[in-house]
């Protein structure tokens, strides 16, 4: 490493506009007496006097020291003086932060040199924090609203005093069941904004997917420095949509809420997604003018014996087989079955979405095997998403073999949207052990739920 030497021979002559000559030599740093690193820095407190030493000043017989900042003489730019080589600032200002240069005239081996050294100056308001951190957000004991199944960020915004020896810290803890003695540190991300006299820290804990379990816990933001600590604890609650129904509510709305509320004004606290599904699945707010290729798309997972076994044993025909036969042969609907009517070789997800868009209605025959099939669950979830986007689509769930929404606990768990939809979508219950009157009632209810136009005159289902 060189300061500037490898003696240039012949010496380089630099001609300036004034035609004065200077000799430039490059010399190794270690060849200098009192060798010091070229980097030098100093911290000065604002609003009092300060001194900036010139590095290596005592090593030579100096004939004078001149100080510069940004190529301007400090003695001209501001009130100052030089005492024994040090720059003495009568009052230090915030704007004094920057690089200062000291030029010294030294004599080495009979040659007069101008030797320049740089000093990095940083002006600080104080060396130690004067007060504990202040948590600006969240407020103590507040509650944040969240949506189940969605990500959520918990942010803690804290103001710290400036300090030289950094001691500030911000951490998020999860308190299981709200127990303050059962706290676990969670992973977070930090963002800092540094100002002259304070530092603003934002510490964020990201919940990738909010579950009902998160609503049972409390969350504590702890901030501290050498002076003291502060903490804030908050909880989460599910976001609710308040819908106000006033004046007269007709018979359809009575069926919707399940209680007689005619001529009453009520406030329903319901989840927004469920509310949308209830309205869109039970009321047609508009007609779909686009001609559909299919009247109904039937989705099921085969759970019964083979068709040949059914015929040989003369047993009751499984609903998966009988439903399609009744819809097509007796009622005249155009039915779509993925395994029968969709050409193989395409992407399954695209085929499902396109088939739903080409159908007026989606019927899902639900069973334990249906919920264990990821492909079948995808059909159901795609239908729910389509229903939320298209008020003309109809959906119907047919529960079989003793299954019901309250007993479905598949592994892995169903998507949150599907779990919500199972509770509110129109449904029918089918059982092979039901009396004939119950079976007849099932077919009558199914026929009423089907699209009104497009089918041939209905024949009686035996």
Descriptive terms for the model:
28 strands; NAD; disordered N terminus; five-stranded mixed β-sheet; Immunoglobulin-like; immunoglobulin domain; membrane; IL-1_rcpt_fam; alpha+beta; 462 residues
Question: How many domains in all?
Answer: 5
> Please, what is the oligomeric state?
single chain
Report the CATH superfamily of the largest domain: Toll/interleukin-1 receptor homology (TIR) domain
Termini separation comes to: 100 Å
Which geometry do the CA atoms define? Answer: elongated
Q: What count of helical segments does DSSP give? A: 11
Strands in their spatial order, largest beta sheet: 5-12-11-7-8
Provide the structure class: alpha+beta
Radius of gyration, in Å, reads: 40 Å
3D structure, described in words:
With 462 residues, the chain is α+β, with helices and mostly antiparallel strands. The protein has five domains: 1-31, no CATH class; 37-124, Immunoglobulin-like (Sandwich), CATH 2.60.40.10; 134-238, Immunoglobulin-like (Sandwich), CATH 2.60.40.10; 241-270, no CATH class; 293-449, 3-Layer(aba) Sandwich (Rossmann fold). Helices cover 21% and strands 34% of the residues. It is built from eleven helices and 28 strands. It has helices spanning 74-77, 251-257, 272-282, 307-313, 319-330, 338-341, 348-357, 368-372, 374-389, 416-424, 436-449; strands spanning 2-4, 12-15, 21-24, 27-28, 41-45, 50-52, 65-69, 72-73, 80-83, 86-89, 98-108, 111-124, 134-137, 143-146, 152-161, 169-175, 183-185, 189-194, 198-207, 218-224, 229-238, 241-245, 266-270, 296-299, 335-336, 361-366, 394-400, 427-430. It has a five-stranded mixed sheet with strand order 5-12-11-7-8. Strands 14-21-20-16-17 form a five-stranded mixed sheet, with no helix packed on it. A five-stranded parallel sheet has the order 25-24-26-27-28, sandwiched between helices. β7 (65-69) and β8 (72-73) form a beta hairpin. α3 packs across α10. The longest helix is centred in the C-terminal third of the chain and has 16 residues, at 374-389. The chain is elongated. The termini are far apart. Residues 1-17, 243-269 and 307-314 have low confidence and may be disordered.
């Amino acid at each position: 490493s060189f300061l500037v030497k490898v003696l240039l021979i012949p010496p380089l002559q630099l001609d300036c506009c004034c035609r004065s000559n200077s000799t430039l030599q490059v010399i190794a740093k270690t060849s200098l007496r009192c060798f010091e690193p070229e980097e030098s820095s100093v911290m000065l407190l604002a609003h009092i006097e300060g001194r900036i030493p010139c590095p290596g000043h005592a090593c030579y017989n100096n004939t004078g020291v001149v100080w510069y900042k940004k190529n301007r003489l400090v003695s001209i730019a501001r009130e100052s003086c030089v005492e024994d080589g040090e720059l003495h600032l009568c009052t230090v200002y915030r704007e004094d932060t920057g690089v200062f240069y000291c030029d010294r005239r030294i004599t080495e081996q009979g040659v007069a040199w101008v030797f320049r050294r740089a000093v990095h100056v940083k002006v600080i308001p104080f060396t130690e924090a004067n007060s504990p951190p202040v948590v600006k957000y969240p407020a103590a004991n507040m509650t944040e609203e969240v949506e189940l199944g969605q990500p959520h960020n918990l942010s803690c915004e804290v103001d710290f005093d400036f300090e030289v020896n950094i001691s500030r810290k911000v951490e998020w803890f999860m308190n299981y069941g709200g127990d303050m003695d059962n706290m676990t540190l969670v992973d977070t991300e930090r963002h800092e904004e540094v100002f002259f006299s304070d530092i603003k820290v934002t510490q964020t804990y990201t919940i990738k997917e909010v579950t009902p379990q998160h609503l049972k816990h409390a969350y504590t933001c702890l901030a501290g420095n050498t002076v003291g600590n502060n903490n804030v604890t908050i909880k989460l609650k599910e976001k609710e949509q308040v819908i106000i129904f006033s004046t007269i509510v007709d018979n359809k709305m009575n069926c919707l809420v399940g209680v007689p509320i005619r001529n009453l004004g009520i406030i329903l606290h319901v989840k927004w997604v469920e509310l949308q599904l209830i309205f869109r699945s039970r009321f047609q707010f508009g007609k779909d003018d686009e001609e559909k290729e299919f009247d109904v798309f039937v989705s099921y997972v085969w759970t019964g014996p083979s068709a040949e076994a059914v015929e040989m044993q003369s047993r009751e025909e499984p609903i998966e087989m009988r439903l399609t036969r009744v819809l097509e042969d007796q009622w005249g609907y155009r039915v779509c079955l993925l395994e029968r009517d969709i050409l193989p070789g395409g992407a399954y997800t695209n085929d499902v979405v396109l088939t739903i868009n080409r159908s007026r209605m989606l019927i899902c025959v639900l069973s334990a095997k249906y919920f264990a099939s990821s492909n079948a669950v995808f059909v159901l979830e795609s239908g729910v998403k389509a229903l939320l986007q298209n008020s003309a689509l109809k959906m119907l769930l047919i529960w079989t073999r003793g299954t019901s929404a309250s007993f479905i606990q598949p592994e892995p768990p169903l998507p949150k949207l599907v779990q919500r939809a199972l509770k509110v979508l129109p449904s029918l219950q089918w059982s092979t052990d039901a009396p004939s009157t119950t079976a007849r009632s099932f077919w009558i209810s199914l026929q009423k739920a089907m699209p009104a136009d497009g089918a041939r005159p209905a024949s009686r289902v035996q």
